[in-house]
Fold this sequence. Notes:
By secondary structure, this protein is mainly α. It is 70% helix and 0% strand.
Amino acid sequence: MATTIGMMDSAYFVGRSEILAWINSTLHLNLSKVEEACTGAVQCQLMDAAHPGIVPMHKVNFDAKSEYEMIQNYKVLQDVFNKLKITKHIEVNKLVKGRALDNLEFMQWMKRYCDSVNRGGIHSYNPLERRESCKGGKDATKKTVTSQPSGKTTAAATRHTSHTARRGEPSHGSTANTTVKVSRPTSSGGSSASSDAERTAYEQQITELKLSVDSLEKERDFYFAKLRDIEILCQFPEIEKLPVVEAMKKILYAADDDASVVAEAQALISGKQQQQQVEQLATIPEEADDVLKIDTQKRKNILNVDVDAAANNTLSPRQRISDASDVHCSGSPLVTY
Length: 337
């Protein structure tokens, strides 16, 4: 579902012209800039087209000028999101500012969502009729209707002039003067039209480049923030002395783009692990020596007791009496007379 698409999804690489063409064809509008949709009314009607009848169109204001009026439209849109259980966050504070990049990203998400719901197309939806109940909806419809006939009239007049010029048919008596008067404005008008077209193309290219730069800057800031979070985590006293953390710091703080930095970090981890293993092995003999000394002392004590017992058993009766007489002569208090 489009509610969970990431920032690197293909939906966010759709161009501005394609987004405008999709909005104008779906809602029968005549937007020339993506930021004209910052009022939130367009988004509300796009959701109404994707889910007919779910948006209370009488609460939508197509004539919103102030931020307060725009916020009311976004509240309607948020209520619709809540009904549909869409978790997409609406950055209202950014959208109402009318910045091209913010509105383009949100409209890219809207297109992806509507395409996923309607499988690429919205059928049997009358945007003009649905817009009748909106505040300012009739004016928006009138602007669209009046702009389309004017374009058709201009195109028809151009075709008629070119057709007449090809046939060379005079409309009045002064044929030469009429031809000159018609041909000169036509040539000058053609050059001005071509220059206007070129200027429009250049402006469109500049706008697309600016949007590309803004997108790249946003992507750069995103990954820089991730690296900063990793750096803060590596600075915790509990883990900053770990080999893995020291290797990560070495990569983060590398001044040059050198592939050997990764190898050095791996060597650092391997060296630390080997050192720890050597230290563990060094403590084992000391413990073994202590155990051996304790066992030897125990054995000596056992041997002394056994030797004394054996000596007593091997003494002759005369030697035992001699020992007793020695005790008697020594005045031992244990001997009674």
